[in-house]
Design goal:
419 residues; 14 helices; 31% helix
Length: 419
């Protein structure tokens, strides 16, 4: 496996352009299954997860053309040959489970293995299945598979016990071709849900309320092909903003939607970092060590769980003591052990981490335990004394486009090497 080597201490300066959102493009690719016509997606981030979801669609009969030069994908699903994606693909990535909603809605049946993905905690699919059952599907679970079938889905009122992004998206896609109106209450409000809704509406769906806690879907008989531009990745943007802060840098982060990164901006400013907002970019300037801040992860518009690890790296060198509370995933502190190998002073107390800032981190051999943990270790390596070697970087390939090259362009001493 490849590794990342970092010699810390360089101050980051310059500009970095943010790629499209991984967590947006994956459900949108799955949603293209809802119609037999050509869908063109623009601004695609060519990540390992994108290749996996494309392989899932190909395995059931979709035709997919990828153009890496123009960052476009063309999908046509007029010749679906099976409603059961292969286990060996689905187990690679949790987002593969998002094909069940479109397949059930369009073909009345789907059989799929239980999903895989990062081991950051329990992410049950019960809310997905609850929604399908409410829409009239017969759902069976056994031997590691989920099978759902129906003659025709019918609109229903569905209350989610937790505002799950995946469940909101899957139910919304399933309801698009159902009979009558579906109302999802306590729905996830994330920007990625709004982007999926916009994509579906451009195909001819009738969805209102995405971005609020109540989404209404009036079922339609059929959908058409469309062209769609995917939104920028707010987590990638936040990661580079923290990179500027942790290295006492001066970095312009381009191609962002300001509203999507408000929690990150607020916490950086609270930590004493200068953040200058412009129309579709921010300038992050840090002239000293950050001040300690407390963080509590929450569903959007709260502080994103996907930025928790990166902020923990920043707080590791902050002045004072921070308390970071994780409320979304119960097993999302796996990066703590690795940060402590680099000299961080962190203690875990249940769902909270007490982080006492230290004057400096030191380079070490560490392992990326999941996607965002990998990002946190890269950030820590940028500021650590000496050399940091990060293994298991395939996790990073799932969520960051050209992270090594982008950091190099900002002046980081970082390289990717083959083992």
């Amino acid at each position: 496996m490849d590794r990342i080597l970092i010699s810390g201490g360089n101050r980051l300066t310059g500009k970095v352009k943010i790629s499209a959102a991984k967590n947006s493009v994956l459900p949108i690719i799955a949603a293209s299954l809802l119609c037999p016509f050509e869908c063109k997606l623009e601004g695609i981030p060519f990540l390992d997860d994108v290749f996996v979801i494309c392989d899932v669609l190909r395995s059931i009969g979709s035709e997919i053309s990828l153009n890496k030069k123009s960052n476009k994908i063309i999908i046509k699903s007029d010749n679906i040959s099976t409603i059961e994606p292969p286990y060996e693909l689905v187990r690679k990535m949790r987002a593969s489970f998002l094909v069940i909603g479109p397949l059930l809605s369009r073909f009345g049946r789907c059989r799929i293995s239980l999903p895989g993905g990062c081991n950051i905690g329990t992410r049950p699919i019960d809310l997905h299945l609850k929604g399908f059952s409410a829409l009239g599907a017969e759902v069976r679970l056994g031997h590691g598979y989920v099978e759902a079938s129906c003659k025709k889905l019918k609109g229903a009122k569905i209350y989610l016990d937790f505002p799950s992004v995946g469940a909101t998206e899957n139910i919304m896609m399933a309801a698009t071709l159902s009979q009558g109106e579906t109302i999802i209450e306590n729905a996830a409000e994330e920007p990625e849900v709004v982007d999926l809704s916009n994509f579906l509406n451009s195909m001819g769906a009738n969805i209102i309320g995405a971005g609020t806690d109540t989404i209404r879907i009036e079922g339609v008989k059929e959908l058409k092909g469309t062209v769609h531009q995917v939104i920028p990745d707010r987590i990638e943007a936040g990661t580079y903003m923290v990179a500027a802060a942790i290295t006492q840098g001066n970095v312009v982060v381009e191609n962002i939607i300001l509203e999507h990164i408000r929690p990150v901006i607020a916490k950086l400013q609270e930590a004493g970092i200068t953040v200058i907002e412009e129309q579709n970019r921010v300038k992050v300037i840090a002239e000293d060590f950050p001040k300690s801040v407390d963080i509590k992860t929450l569903p959007y518009p709260g502080f994103p769980t996907d930025m928790q690890a990166q902020f923990m790296a920043l707080m590791s060198i902050a002045k004072g003591t921070s308390i970071i509370t994780e409320t979304v995933f119960e097993n999302r502190f796996m990066h703590v052990t690795e940060l402590k190998r680099m000299g961080a002073n962190i203690k875990i107390d249940g769902r909270s981490a007490v982080v006492e800032g230290v004057p400096r981190l030191t380079g070490a051999q560490v392992k990326a335990t999941d996607l965002r943990a990998g990002a946190a270790l890269v950030l820590a390596g940028l500021v650590a004394d000496g050399k940091t070697e990060i293994s298991d970087i395939h996790h990073l390939d799932r969520g960051y486009v050209n992270i090594v090259e982008k950091l190099q362009s900002l002046g980081a001493d970082i390289q990717r090497v083959e083992s």
